[in-house]
């Protein structure tokens, strides 16, 4: 069983989706986990501690100041005796309290006192989910290293539809497995013994000490791929441009700013069995970086001379010596997605291009949490349905492992 022997602390928040947390307890136990539950006061309006206790087979905890609870097992022990903490449903209120580090009830106290990895499964009304305050809290939690699964889009309890539905219990269990799998360096797995090199994020090309050329890449897809490759047993080097997403667990991260630094870091990380080039490298840099701030000086704007950056992917794919067995490129396109990806496959000399539509019609891929990708290789095109970037990463890593194994067995 995949979660065999792990101790999971499940914090149930107060939302209508709390009933699904009861199913989650069963799913986690099916996979071999020991589950202890903490219910917030709000949660107890939707589900009872008795139900959580019956399904988990353990006492359920509710109150920081309850003498019986604290005598049975104190909040610090609850926090320590967990290999991971799952918050489901994570309501807007609970996320806000977590993000600001409050400890005003048992749930938030335990969340503050634990050093175990935390996975939250947000669930709320779509308008609340989109609210700038919730976006801010989400970014803060991510920067603190909290993993997030969902929410999904779809019909809600209220007559409103959109992102805000709690991820399904099976999705939450999968995300937890991925989180724990990545933390505990895998010795087995389809990529065990392989070195995987991943580039991710944008690059920043300085114009002067205060300005730079950049793009909207968040690094979410590249980082998710690095995490998935580590979970599949690989030794992973992640060369990342400036991003705010947290470092994936179990991965060696090399931070760079510019395309030329990224190229040098990639060269230094070789040899690798697989190179995955998910970074949105700036194609151009300022031909000359001004040593001091460029001033307006009242006149006509001074033209900005640009120089072409090295193509890092093409450089690696076209190596005659020490080329990774598999080189995977990305193609971020706004028009003619497949045709452009095909052209890139040939021009750069990679084995596979993962193409995505980054136009507004593509649904906000850049910076967003979802991606719709098309796999383009010499054999043709395979289009995948829109999915979360973590899910795309896992599928892609599975595919890469299979391609690598096939190549080494000599099958095409
Ligand atoms: N890439 C790279 N180095 C560059 C530019 C791109 O390694 N200087 C890699 C990206 O990481 C990605 C792939 O090349 O895997 C395609 O990037 P993209 O920006 O879509 O392609 P470009 O070569 O920039 O082509 P164009 O701007 O004409 O679309």
Structural notes for this entry:
Helices cover 34% and strands 23% of the residues. By secondary structure, the chain is an alpha/beta fold. The chain has 2 domains: 1-183, 3-Layer(aba) Sandwich (Rossmann fold), CATH 3.40.50; 186-412, Rossmann fold (3-Layer(aba) Sandwich). Strand 1, helix 1 and strand 2 form a beta-alpha-beta unit. The longest helix has 20 residues, at 389-408. The relative contact order is 0.09. The mean pLDDT is 90. The structure holds cytidine-5'-triphosphate (CTP). Cytidine-5'-triphosphate binds at residues 199, 259, 277, 279, 281, 283, 309, 311-313, 329-332, 344.
Short synopsis of the structure:
Helix 2 links the parallel strand 2 and strand 3. Helices cover 34% and strands 23% of the residues.
Features:
alpha/beta, 14 helices, eight-stranded mixed β-sheet, Rossmann fold, 22 strands, binds cytidine-5'-triphosphate, 412 residues, six-stranded parallel β-sheet, 2 domains
| Overall pLDDT level | 90
Task: Give the fraction of residues assigned to helices.
Answer: 25-40%
Strand content: 15-25%
Shape: globular
Count of β-strands: 22
Bound molecules: cytidine-5'-triphosphate
Indicate the CATH architecture of the largest domain.
3-Layer(aba) Sandwich
Unreliable residue stretches? none
Structural class: alpha/beta
According to CATH, the fold-level topology of the largest domain is Rossmann fold
């Amino acid at each position: 069983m995949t979660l065999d022997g792990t101790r999971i602390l499940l914090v149930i928040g107060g939302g209508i989706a709390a009933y699904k947390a009861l199913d989650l307890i069963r799913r986690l136990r099916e996979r071999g986990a020991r589950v202890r539950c903490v219910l917030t006061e709000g949660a107890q309006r939707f589900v009872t501690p008795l139900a959580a206790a019956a399904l988990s087979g353990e006492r359920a905890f509710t109150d920081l100041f309850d003498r019986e609870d604290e005598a049975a097992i104190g909040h610090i022990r609850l926090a320590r005796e967990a290999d991971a903490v799952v918050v489901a449903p994570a309501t807007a209120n609970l996320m806000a309290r977590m993000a600001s580090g409050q400890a005003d009830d048992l749930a938030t106290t335990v969340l503050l006192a634990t050093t175990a990895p935390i996975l939250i499964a947000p669930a709320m009304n779509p308008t609340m989910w989109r609210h700038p305050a919730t976006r801010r809290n989400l970014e803060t939690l991510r920067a603190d290293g909290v993993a997030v699964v969902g929410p999904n889009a779809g019909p809600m309890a209220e007559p409103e539809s959109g992102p805000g539905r709690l991820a399904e219990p099976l999705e939450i269990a999968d995300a937890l497995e991925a989180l724990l799998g990545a933390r505990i360096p895998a010795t087995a797995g389809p990529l065990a013994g392989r070195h995987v090199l991943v580039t991710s994020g944008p690059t920043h090309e300085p114009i002067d000490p205060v300005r730079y050329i950049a793009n909207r890449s968040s690094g979410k897809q590249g980082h998710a791929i690095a995490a998935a490759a580590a979970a599949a047993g690989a030794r992973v080097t992640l060369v990342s441009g400036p991003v705010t997403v947290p470092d994936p667990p179990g991965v060696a991260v090399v931070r760079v700013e510019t395309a030329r630094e990224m190229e040098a870091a990639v060269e230094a990380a070789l040899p690798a069995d697989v190179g995955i080039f998910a970074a949105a490298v700036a194609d151009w840099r300022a031909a000359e970086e001004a040593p001091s701030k460029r001033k307006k000086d009242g006149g006509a704007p001074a033209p900005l001379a640009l120089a072409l950056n090295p193509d890092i992917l093409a450089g690696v794919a076209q190596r005659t010596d020490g080329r990774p067995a598999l080189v995977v490129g990305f193609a971020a396109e706004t028009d003619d997605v497949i045709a452009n990806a095909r052209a890139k496959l040939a021009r750069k000399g990679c084995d596979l291009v993962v193409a995505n539509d980054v136009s507004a019609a593509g649904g906000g891929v850049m910076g967003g949490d979802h991606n719709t990708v098309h796999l383009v290789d010499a054999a043709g095109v395979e289009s995948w349905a829109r999915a979360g970037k973590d899910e795309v990463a896992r599928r892609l890593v599975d595919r890469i492992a299979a391609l690598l194994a096939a190549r080494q067995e000599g099958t095409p």
